[in-house]
Amino acid sequence: MITSKEWYIMQVLWENGACSLMEIVAQMERKTKWSKSTCATMLRRMTEKGVIGYEMKGKTKYFYPIVQKDEVIMPETKSFLGRIYDGSIGAMMSTLVKQGDLSEKDIEELEEILKNARENAEKKG
Fold it and tell me: CA-to-CA distance for 81 and 83, rounded, in angstroms?
């Protein structure tokens, strides 16, 4: 399981590929105000967990993701859904809709997702 703080670093690596500590620090300063030592500590822990790796180029470590985003999104989503909404997708969607922050594009995407889900359910019987 990737912690909420580790997600920040994973996003950087998923979006940019292999990065040096200083490249990660530069990205993280914009998002979190983390220091170089905080980033280094996070990278060490994440390497120990096996979610990222690194390769040496000269004296510089270049960190890269070992787990891909699509490998962790579903387990993370299910964990969140279970903790917060007792597993109910409907309750989560209701909360999002009631917030009123959905754009027309969001609504169209949701309608398309539901249409495809309905078609797939009908095919399965």
Answer: 6
Strands across the sheet with 60-65, in order?
Answer: 19-20, 60-65, 52-57
Write out pLDDT tens, residues 62-104: 999 999 999 999 988 898 899 999 999 889 989 988 887 888 9
Question: Topology of domain 4-65, per CATH?
Answer: Arc Repressor Mutant, subunit A (1.10.10)
Distance CA 99, CA 120 (A): 29
Structure-token match 């594009």, residue found: 105
Alpha-carbon distance values, 10 to 27, 46, 49, 63, 69 (Å):
11, 9, 13, 10, 8
Separation of alpha carbons 100 and 112, rounded Å: 19
Centroid of chain to Cα 78: 13
Ranges of each domain in the chain: 4-65, 90-125
Q: If you average pLDDT over residues 8-32, what whole number do you get? A: 94
